[in-house]
Amino acid sequence: MPESFIILFFKITKLKIILEMAYMSQDGYNKLLADLRELEGKRPDIIRAIAEARDKGDLSENAEYDAAKEAQGLLEMKINELKMIIAEAKIIDTSKLSADSVQVLTKVGLKNTKTGAVMQYTIVPESEANLREAKISINTPIAKGLLGKKVGDVAEITVPQGKITLEITSISI
């Protein structure tokens, strides 16, 4: 199989994954815009590094030049990915959400029925997931198992370590 076909297939597959992550909160959208501005602000530094490396002589044996060009390519790739995500973004209107059942952007109180452990997670789009902030992706097994459930419901969820049983103790926005 030609190498160019593999690279093209990878790029198309990666593009599809990015475009599927278009739903987000206003905070997530604002964070993406801030990240984009920050990355675009790094362009002059990389251009300067390329110019300095070019001034040092023969480009065919200049590792500093190669490294700067590679950094530029990676930066441009990240900028383009963010621009595509932002262009496809659909912001979820939290005023239209209901705390009647578990859905995206709801905060869910849970109790492990086996261990008695109590936890609270916010179900968020993939691009906003951050376990340190107790924000889990809608694509995780736990979130998928909780979607549509109401307070008092018990969900048996298969996770990589086995099955867990979680009782929903609260839902809020």
Query: Which of globular, elongated, flat, extended, rod-shaped describes the shape?
Result: elongated
Number of self-contained structural domains: 2
Please report the first level of CATH classification, the CATH class of the largest domain. Answer: Mainly Alpha
Query: What would the CATH topology of the largest domain be?
Result: Helix Hairpins
Low-confidence stretches: 1-19
Distance between the termini: 50 Å
Quaternary = single chain
Helix content: 40-55%
Q: What's the order of the H and E elements?
A: HEHHHEEEEHEE
- Determine the number of helices (DSSP H or I, runs of at least 4 residues): 5
Assign the structural class, choosing from mainly alpha, mainly beta, alpha/beta, alpha+beta, or little secondary structure. alpha/beta
Gyration radius, in Å? 22 Å
**Percent of residues in beta strands:** 15-25%
Mean pLDDT: 84
Most strands sheet: 5 strands, mixed
CATH architecture of the largest domain: Orthogonal Bundle
